[in-house]
Design brief:
There is one protein chain. The protein is of the alpha+beta class and 657 residues long. Helices cover 43% and strands 19% of the residues. The strands form six sheets. Strands 1-8-3-6-9-10 form a six-stranded antiparallel β-sheet. The chain has a five-stranded parallel β-sheet with strand order 18-17-16-19-20, covered by helices on one side. The longest helix is centred in the first third of the chain and has 25 residues.
Length: 657
């Protein structure tokens, strides 16, 4: 992050001083792996020491300033008596408009989670403010607290000035390292993705993406693996009760612990303990010892998912799935047994949530279908749904449905789920989901939260979410990005046996489209050109695809309106979401008779921009602002509402000549 950007953040920040203290360490003393509970400044007063912050080494002499982010690991090795001031604070972007603008522009940057160290050019100026801060903090009266905050801003001003003068380089703390360390140290505690993101001042989405990119797993999956690994070790090495082990690894409910253990290991904790101890006794027999003396025995891990705790005697390797393991083989054998039993009985049974889906998952890997359809088994009150993952047996009348991202189509079919991924506040169907549990971002739900809901059906939009949740309950994967709105709705309808309802919805939409096109044609608007843009003063994205969202489906696909020729040429050949990021100087060439601009809280005000204001569609009042949240979704419920909005606004705008 550039220093001037950091200064802008401080200008928009609300701060709270959390603690300030003076610490003296004797020569030779050490501080090891101390986790900063908040963002903090360390300012050395006397002596010297070697400081490490997240592995980065700083040699701190008298008057050395070090800044670390919340969650960073601090190590101190003193060479002589060492005194320093430690100042903890909390800061966040106070104004929603600026915060949203910041997140859209730089989602990968946490504005106050920077790491840097330097020797100030004017050290006594900083010390003066810190001394006054300490004095006001000790008094702790209401007026003193106000004085503390005032002094803190003055301290920040002085430090920023010295950073700028010395051109000190600042760098971001690594959120993945921080998260790994936090999970390893706090796996016994209640941990969620949102909590981890808040701990390190990152968005949930960014933390999840970075973590998965570096480790191959989501943060919550890594947490579960860590807990299961610890539980396995306790089952093997102690006689603790199941309740004691569950509590030790972070589960207050022993039944829930047993359930999630079985889901990941393939057998219950007690069965695992008996099996492993029996194997240990077998390995102690002379025959086995003789066999092992012939060849070198492979050092086997005690968990199927390797992580930093994968070996009984320690070790550290990157997380990855082992290609084979005894427990995985046992799960496969169990699955084959269940499959044969199902075939021999000649009937399908409804899987119990969290258990019976293993069979359906294995079936899905054997039979792949390009179509999605369903067949009802009335005797067992189940329905067999053909999906791209094979046949999945689902309840004929599911009562506890969990759906990710595709909730608009589900709502349109008259079904209210018990939980969904988060929905933008401005979504067309937001009010229809009042009281429904939120599972966070659609691409990374919390499996534990889903298990707690005990669903009887799960609908997911991606391979990753299918893999994550398929063992909890019957799970149907809808590859929505490869389908039209109608195809997607029909696929989802087949899961519930609501094909007729879907047909009615599609027919109603088609009727609305024809009526709307006729209305626009009668008004002399249908043959005019329209553009869709999103962005601000630094650049504007022009939508060049029917699949981009932001109203592109409503305008270009359903109403059949055209863009300016330079844009339409791309729309005619692009089959996926696409757009071009343009400067204001060339933007007028891409604007049609009407322009729709996607806006959000904190979007740039373009009123005073001469280029924007000179565009005929803008100057003559044919600019239509559309809400980002409302036009984000492309389900049939949202498309209906978006078409109504588009037609109404086009009719209300001045006519283009």
């Amino acid at each position: 992050m550039q220093l001037d950007e950091q200064m802008k953040c401080w200008n928009h920040a609300a701060v709270k001083v959390l603690d300030i203290r003076r610490i003296v360490m004797e020569a030779g003393a050490q501080l090891s792996s101390y986790t900063l509970p908040a963002n903090g400044f360390i300012y050395t007063i006397r002596g010297s020491a070697v400081l490490q912050l997240d592995g980065q080494t700083y040699k701190a002499e008298r008057f050395y300033m070090l800044h670390g982010a919340k969650g960073s690991s601090l190590d101190i090795q003193t060479n002589e008596d060492f005194e320093y001031i430690l100042l903890y604070y909390r800061a966040f972007l106070a104004f929603p408009s600026y915060r949203k603008k910041w997140l859209l522009a730089q989602p990968e940057v946490a504005p106050f989670s920077l790491q840097y160290g330097f020797a100030p050019s004017s050290p006594l100026g900083l010390l003066r403010y810190l001394d006054e801060l300490e004095g006001a903090w000790i008094q702790s009266g209401s007026l003193d607290m106000l004085h503390t905050k005032s002094l803190f801003y003055q301290f920040i001003h002085e430090m920023m000035a010295q950073l700028a003068e010395q051109e000190i380089k600042t760098e971001l703390a690594d959120p993945v390292k921080q998260t790994l360390r936090y999970i390893q140290n706090h796996y016994r505690e209640q941990v969620t993705l949102d909590f981890l993101a808040e701990q390190f001042n990152y968005s949930s989405r960014h933390l999840s993406m970075q973590f998965k990119r570096q480790t191959g797993h989501s943060p919550i999956d890594y947490l579960i693996q860590t807990r299961i690994a610890k539980a396995r070790n306790l089952l093997l090495r102690s006689d603790a009760t199941l309740s004691e082990i569950a509590a030790e690894v972070g589960y207050s409910d022993v039944y829930y612990f047993s359930r999630i253990f079985k889901k990941h290991v393939g057998i219950s904790p007690i069965q695992y303990q008996r099996k492993m101890r029996e194997e240990a006794r077998t390995e102690d027999r002379p025959l086995v010892i003789s066999e092992s003396s012939i060849g070198r025995r492979w050092k086997s891990g005690y968990i199927d998912y390797e992580n930093h705790y994968q070996y009984i005697d320690g070790g550290s390797t990157p997380m990855k799935r082992r290609k084979t393991s005894s427990s995985m083989i046992m799960v496969a054998l169990l699955s084959i047994t269940m499959l044969l039993a199902a075939c021999s009985s000649g009937t399908a049974t409804t899987p119990a949530a969290g258990e019976g889906t293993g069979a359906s998952s294995n079936n899905s890997s054997m039979a792949v279908s390009s179509d999605t359809g369903s067949q009802t088994n009335k005797d067992n009150e189940t329905r067999t749904v053909s999906t791209v993952k094979g046949d999945v047996v689902v309840p004929a009348n599911p009562k506890r449905v969990v759906v990710l991202y595709l909730q608009g189509d589900v709502v349109a079919l008259g079904i209210k789920p018990i939980a969904t991924s988060e929905v933008f506040n401005g979504a067309a169907y937001k009010s229809e989901l009042e009281g429904v549990n939120s599972l966070g971002t659609w691409f990374e739900p919390n499996p534990e939260a889903v298990i707690d809901l005990d669903p009887d059906l799960i609908i997911v939009p991606s391979e990753e979410t299918y893999t994550l949740l398929k063992d909890i309950a019957p799970t149907v994967y809808i590859p929505y990005e490869k389908m039209t709105t109608e195809e997607r709705l029909q696929s989802i309808a087949s899961i519930f046996g609501k094909e007729q309802e879907a047909e009615t919805l599609i027919n109603n939409l088609n009727s609305k489209v024809e009526e709307s096109k006729q209305t626009l044609a009668d008004a002399g608007i249908l043959d005019k050109t329209v553009s869709i843009v999103e962005g601000g003063l630094k650049g504007m994205v022009v939508v060049e695809s029917k699949q981009y969202g932001r109203g592109s489906q409503a305008l270009y696909e359903y109403l059949g309106m055209k863009a300016p020729e330079v844009v339409q040429k791309k729309i005619d050949v692009v089959s996926e979401a696409g757009g071009s990021n343009l400067s204001m100087e060339v933007l007028p060439e891409y604007i049609g008779d009407y322009v729709f601009r996607s806006v959000y809280e904190g979007a740039d005000n373009l009123t005073d921009d001469p280029i924007w204001s000179s565009i005929p569609a803008v100057k003559e009042g044919r600019l239509i602002e559309i809400d980002f949240d409302f036009f984000y979704y492309s389900d049939i419920y949202s498309i209906n509402k978006q078409i109504d909005f588009v037609v109404e606004k086009l009719l209300a705008a001045p006519r283009a000549q």
